[in-house]
Amino acid sequence: MKVLGIESSCDETGVALYDTERGLLGHAVHTQVAMHEAYGGVVPELASRDHIRRLIPLLERVLAEAGSTRQDIDAIAYTAGPGLAGALLVGASFAESLALALGVPVLPVHHLEGHLLSPLLADDAPSFPFIALLVSGGHTQLMRVARVGDYQLLGESLDDAAGEAFDKTAKLLGLGYPGGPALAKLAESGKPGRYKLPRPMLNSGDLSFSFSGLKTAVLTAARARELSEADRADLAAEFQEAVTEVLAAKAVAACRQHRLSSLVVAGGVGANRRLRERLDAAMAKIGGRVFYPELELCTDNGAMIAFAGSQRLLQGAAPDRGGAFAVRPRWPLDELS
Ligand code: KG4
Ligand code: ZN
Q: What domains sit in the chain, N to C, each tagged with a CATH number?
């Protein structure tokens, strides 16, 4: 079965064709980073309009890469939420109308389920059950994943998501958008420890996170005096140490509590090198290991949506036949069944 995946929840347009027998046949992503850069963040209306422009050319590219035609598509999966309402509606109406035209089933998919299952697309995939650490621009969650569709929320951020904290702190340090990768790059030339930042909720005894105080602590340090380039790098390095220390400690605690040795990391912050180092080391210590999606599938893409949709369809999920549809800008993952 060949499933077309459509992703348009935020500032990336993703299209992919996944074959349940042969794997990923083609995928392409257009990122709007350059367009939103001038505004210092995502402008929702511009995002929606750009998704409209990109979808058909991306579809053509993916079909060519896959050596397939539209008639080869057996089903379509698209991100129905969570995300920006207008951006989601572009992908939803594109997917629903293409499905109607082709006479194939169409399935709305939860964006985070896509991220969560994305490590299963790798050659070396984990088996169920596992603990998943979801770290994106909008979410920081630890979940116990028993199988496709069975997600138990173990803990999450009470305020800012990890990616959001990276982005906001990067802004404070005068770095461009998107801040996460820029801050991580600056941190490489800095020395952690010279500035002392808190490790929020490290010893809270539960699996909750809080990152908004960290941003304020950086702001206080930045206001104390004019920062040199070296100061900024040291502050970035300490910030990255603080966030990754808490993320790694809680992810390992979740694995221990549930006696699971496989940890899956998904979402944009999963691309962070320091986070990976820490998780690998900490999981090795308890005889476990960490599974990551391919680096290019860490950030938003259509492949993870095609894959999640295909798994749902294999499980017998009832698809739409095209027609009425709605998107869910807010959609808790544990409402899925
Ligand atoms: O999953 P994603 O592409 O989009 C959603 O939020 O759904 O995640 C984007 C987030 C942004 O906050 C970005 O700054 C962060 O992931 N990010 C990183 C890195 N690469 C992306 N944060 C830290 N280090 C990175 N290398
Ligand atoms: Zn995402």
A: 2-116+297-335 (3.30.420.40), 127-292 (3.30.420.40)
Q: For a pocket test of ligand 1, which of 9, 269, 275, 296 has the largest count of ligand atoms closer than 8 A to its C-beta?
A: 269
Q: Report which ligand 1 atom has the smallest distance to the Cα of 9.
A: 7
- Ligand 1 atom at minimal distance to the Cα of residue 137: 6
pLDDT in tens, the chain (337 residues): 999 999 999 999 999 999 999 999 999 999 999 999 889 889 999 999 999 999 999 999 999 999 999 999 999 999 999 999 999 999 999 999 999 999 999 999 999 999 999 999 999 999 999 999 999 998 999 999 999 999 999 999 999 999 999 999 999 999 988 899 999 999 999 999 999 999 999 999 999 999 999 999 999 998 888 899 999 999 999 999 999 999 999 999 999 999 999 999 999 999 999 999 999 999 999 999 999 998 889 889 999 999 999 999 999 888 876 668 899 999 988 888 7
207 Cβ contact list (under 8 Å, min separation 6) = 142, 154, 155, 250, 253, 254, 257
Strand runs (DSSP E) across the chain, as ranges? 2-7, 12-19, 23-31, 75-81, 106-110, 130-135, 140-147, 150-156, 262-266, 289-291
Residues with a beta carbon under 5 angstroms from ion ligand 2: 136, 300
- Which of the listed residues 7, 9, 136 should we mutate to test ligand 1's pocket, taking the one with most ligand atoms within 8 A of CB? 136
